[in-house]
Amino acid sequence: METHSSSSSSSFSTLQSYLKALAQTPRRLARRAPSVSSSYEELSRVKARSGSDMQRTLRWFDLVGLGIGGMVGAGVFVTTGRASRLYAGPAIVVSYAIAGLCALLSAFCYTEFAVHMPVAGGAFSYLRITFGEFAAFLTGANLITEYVMSNAAVSRGLTSYMGAAMGISTTKWRFILPLLPNGFNEIDLVAPAIVLILTLVICYSTRESSVVNMILTTLHILFIAFLILMGLWKGDWNNFTHPGNPQHPSGFFPYGASGVFNGAAMVYLSYIGYDAVSTMAEEVRDPVKDIPIGVSGSVIIVTILYCLMAASMSMLLPYDMIDVEAPFSAAFSGRSELVARVIGVGASFGILTSLLVAMLGQARYMCVIGRSNVVPAWFARVHPKTSTPVNASAFLGIFTAAIALFTDLNILLNLVSIGTLFVFYMVSNAVIYRRYVMVGTTKPWPTLSFLCLFSLTSTIFTLVWHFTPPGKPKPFLLGACVVIAISILQVFHCMVPQARTPAFWGVPFMPWLPSISIFLNVFLLGSLDGPSYVRFGFFSALAVLVYVLYSVHASFDAEIDGSMGQKNVEIVEESKQSEEEEDPSQKV
Predict the structure, then answer these.
(1) Please, what are the domains in the chain?
(2) TM segments (predicted)?
(3) Dihedrals phi, psi of 472, to nearest 5 degrees
(4) For 338-366, what is each residue's pLDDT tens digit?
């Protein structure tokens, strides 16, 4: 056993102490990386490290508004045209319905955890109580990185939409610094100003942030309703089945079932954003009632809006005449200048709400990561007057604004969030693992074997779908993968009993629905491009380096000092009674 001083920062107190800590890294990794927390710890001792509590001021309608605001951004204005023109045709409506079902399944998994453990950490906390500290840190670090980069890019994209709506070129407020390299030399003063204003809003009050989001979201929904009605009024029903060029495939399904599913994989990215709602669980008055309605309700409403928008666009133009980059603006450009201008205004509202919700989510992720001591505890502090994580909000807001000032990330044209899809995949696995495994009572290997085999089968299906040329072997291979996956799932369902039953709300049809979510997320991950994986690999390697050089030592110091609560081996007794202990903590 290692000796340790009483100071929580002893690994970093002197250079000699740090070098000694580095020499003990393998032992500390073996101790801390797989260590799991418990729901009771997360709801009590870990939560108390923030000092003041976050106020429980949000209701189900606030969560619905935040969910809609987080999802309906600029993505639908970009991905709809591309998916319809290249993959699904008029059946883009069906693609959105399928993607909405996928999002709803993932939302169920998030909801079970959020009701069971209403804390601000979202996926980070869910994975920390299931797969341990290292898995949680790796996914949390990727999430925050993508939040910051995406928010910086979205803020720059917002200035472009605002300029288009007002008829002003972005060159009026952007200027070039020739001393900087290309891609970093176009200075945008408006984008960081918007980010800093939103940072002040989310620092001031979560309730007021929700009100601002509700107003902007209402205006955005009115704009979408206007867009849908104009499409239905000026559109032609024949465009659902007749292409502009008779030589192109006709019918409602011009590219068949494969086109519909490929289109669903592309438009699914328009649903990313509902996960930020789970980070607000600590500020919800009645988590048991409000979270299921808020998360699932927002996904259902957005699915309906997306399907109607896709139908409106398909009626305005034949699928082979839709503009890939700006489908709605191009569809109305020759019909009404007023409508085209309104589209720019409406898109600006959508981007602004998605930016606001994302900034709320990233601050709460960072706050809870700070509570776990894998980053400085300064980030965990909740201000006693505003009841918001001011330190995390301000730090990430300033960092985002600095990037938005000079970096042209150009993510709006490629709204790929591989880190978020990876977290969806991990949470779907975690909800199955937690239902079937209880530390000290059941063996984890049957469940882990099932999850690995099912993921492997899903990966093989995805590779066959994307890389096997059309022909007779392809349907046979795909069918074989489906049969094997269903067989693995059925054997697991029949032979492995559930170790615990949710006290309040749980994913129905366990383990079928989470397994379908795992399969769909693997399939969607397989549809992403190579640069996305390069970026994910780079930031994952960077996160591992930070964990090895800093986080594991800070976490180890905190454990020795007693601030980490129960050690991994001591959770055996507590896990048997965790369900009963959590009941009173959620009745608020």
Answers:
(1) 58-238+251-437 (1.20.1740.10)
(2) 60-80, 86-111, 123-144, 187-204, 211-233, 253-274, 295-318, 338-361, 388-406, 412-433, 445-464, 476-496, 503-526, 532-550
(3) -65, -40
(4) 666 677 777 778 888 888 888 988 899 99
